[in-house]
Each structure stands twice: as structure tokens, then as C-alpha cells.
Amino acid sequence: MKRRHGMMGKWAAVVKIHGTSCFYCREYPATSIDHVVPYSWDQDNSLNNLVPSCMWCNLLAGDAVFDNVEDKRAYILGKQGKKSKSRRAVCTDCMLPYSYREHSPSLFLCAECYDIEYGTEYSKRTKWKHWLKTLKLAGIYPDIHRKIRRKWEGCKLTKLAEVVRLAYDEKHVLTVDV
Q1: At 178, is the pLDDT very low, low, confident or very high (cuts 50, 70, 90)?
Q2: How many domains does the structure of the chain reveal?
Q3: C-alpha–C-alpha distance, residues 8 and 159, integer Å
Q4: What does the pLDDT look like over 101-146, one tens digit per residue?
Q5: Residues 97 and 55 in one domain
Q6: Which of 131, 151, 172 is nearest to 8 (CA)?
């Protein structure tokens, strides 16, 4: 089954309804849209089924199905309490989420961007490759984030929102086999 990811058009409406913070943890800014009932379950992209989420809460929820959104929030917050001592981070170059120390020695650069900057080989490690597969399963596509890095390098934009908009531009909507 092919699925088109055109969620950027719904971002403004979702943020207007729920705000810019993560709907689940309320601790971090929302960087993705989460389906309350997973898309894999019912293919529902209506605004009633979408909430803003940080990438970490979105990953923790996975494709589990809950009776209501509060059960899902409780599940996510419970999982966060059990997290390891590694620190979660978002790469400043490509906006890809990762775990500092577990995936990269830098708090600011993911393994791939760190390799590009310093000529190391952290992105060849098994943990990093497994992490990229996990991100893909969660609907976060590293290829789009690599595109963000290229857009960022190729222009002098100062607003991250502009870079993200360019990367997810309607002309570049990704078609993904699921």
C-alpha cells in the first residue's frame, strides 16, 4: 500500500486547535503530528484524530491502540519515566531526533552530521542503523531530514520553519511504500 505524507498542510490547523507544545508531555515543542488512533489502524487523517507531538512521544506511542487519548498520554508518560540515562536531542543541522551519547558524541549533531563535520564513522554503527529503521517505522523519514540539511546549507534562511516548509514542499511530497 502506498501512502502520501502531506501532513504539513494540516499543521497550522492542528497547532491552532491544540497549541505548539507536545500534546502528551507538554514539556517539549511539537515537532510532528501524531495520529491518536494510528494511521495503520484506520487511515484517518481528520483533524479529530491529529494532535501535535514531540518526536519522542510520537515514537514512544508507536502504533499501539488505546481506548482514549488520556490512556495514550498515560502510557507515553509512563514510558518516559523508564527512559535511560542517555539524553534525547534533535540535530541542529537536519532536525533528526537521536540520543546523545548513545548515537552521537555531540549534543548538537546526529551521527551522520557529526561524521560530515568531523570525518568520523558514528553513522556506521549498528545502534545508529537500528535507530534509523525505528524512525522509519514511526513515520519519521531520515531522507526528508537529509533534504532539510541540504536546504539549510544551500541558503541563508534564518527561520527554521522556512527550511522545514521547503523540505516538505508540495513538489517534494514523499511517496512511501508501507
Answers
A1: very low
A2: 2
A3: 16
A4: 888 888 888 999 889 888 999 999 999 999 898 888 777 788 877 7
A5: no
A6: 172
